[in-house]
From TrEMBL:
Name the UniProt record assigns to this protein: Alkylphosphonate utilization protein
InterPro entries for the chain: YjdM, YjdM_C, YjdM_N
Database matches in Pfam families: YjdM, Zn_Ribbon_YjdM
Similarity remark: Belongs to the YjdM family.
Start and end residues of each Protein YjdM C-terminal domain: 46-113
Residue span, Protein YjdM N-terminal domain: 4-32
Length: 113
């Protein structure tokens, strides 16, 4: 078997390639991998305060003091955050910070280290 993705319409695993298209024999759906990749890319571009594109696993620096929700602690400007993970939503960076634990940050308040 190949490692083609399942059908996005019916989730069948019996998909096959036909030229630049992927076909599903079960529901007749056809689609392209390029289209899918382009859409994913567009949805996942997260930029730091300087407009640099961030990626999973990047190390970033906090560029201003940030209040930590639900506590009285403050995440200090200059705090290094390693191994970030990009997520959807208002706070688009998932990370773990020493002394704070798991938290979410906004990409506009960090810059790539
Ligand atoms: Zn299908």
């Amino acid at each position: 078997m190949s490692n083609l993705p399942n059908c996005p319409a019916c989730n069948s695993e019996y998909t096959y390639e036909d030229g630049r298209f992927l076909m599903c024999p079960e529901c007749g759906h056809e689609w392209t991998l390029e289209g899918e990749a382009a859409m994913t890319e567009e949805a996942q571009v997260v930029k730091d305060a300087n407009g640099n594109v961030l990626q999973d696993g990047d190390t970033v620096l906090v560029i201003k003091d940030l209040k930590v929700k639900g506590s009285s602690s403050v995440l200090k400007m200059g705090t290094k955050v390693k191994n970030i993970r990009l997520v959807d939503g208002d706070h688009d960076i998932d990370c773990k910070i020493d002394g704070f634990g798991a938290m979410k940050l906004k990409s506009e308040f960090v810059k790539k280290a």
